[in-house]
Amino acid sequence: MEGLVYGDQEINKRGGLIMSNNVSWICENDSVEITAISKGGDMFGIEFPRDYVECIMKNDGGYPRPNRFNLNGNEEVFNNLLSFDEEDSSNIMEAYNDVKDRLIRKVIPFAEDPFGNLICFDYRDSEQPIIVFWEHEKAFNDKESAMSYLCDSFTDLLSMLHESQE
Predict the structure, then answer these.
(1) Which of 17, 88, 108, 162, by CA, is between 20 and 30 Å from 153?
(2) What does the pLDDT read at residue 138?
(3) Do residues 108 and 44 make contact, with C-beta atoms less than 8 angstroms apart?
(4) Does domain 4-160 bear CATH number 3.40.720.10?
(5) Does the reported pTM lie above 0.90?
(6) Buried (b) or exposed (e) across 112-135, using 16+ Cβ within 10 A?
């Protein structure tokens, strides 16, 4: 099987790594091309993590099942991945442009909850980003306090997902 090149990473077209954690995806768009992902990374001045690229290539704009995760004693919702499709209402560039005045530089959204909050890659300290949860209402007052550490990687985030406990 021929791999695709993204930055200095070779990506398997079937993305087997992501499928091993019992997360399924619904309502995803058609497959996204690696060139669209690479172009998006270039626009942000970053290189997206390999595990995310493998997932987004097959599940662009998709909704994960299960979709709940715990953060600071609360159950939160991973509603959907932001899309690289410019026509999608949850487009990654549009989402970023809507909130960039309230985001800290090098914090890049890649998913959203149903309430206007975002799940983001935080590249401030490393080329290998951590994952943070960004609360849009808090960001009006203090950009830094709007972000809460969630986990170390996209794969870690997917492994945190569970069914609703309510």
Answers:
(1) 88
(2) 92
(3) yes
(4) no
(5) no
(6) bbeeebbbbbbbeeeeebbbbbbb
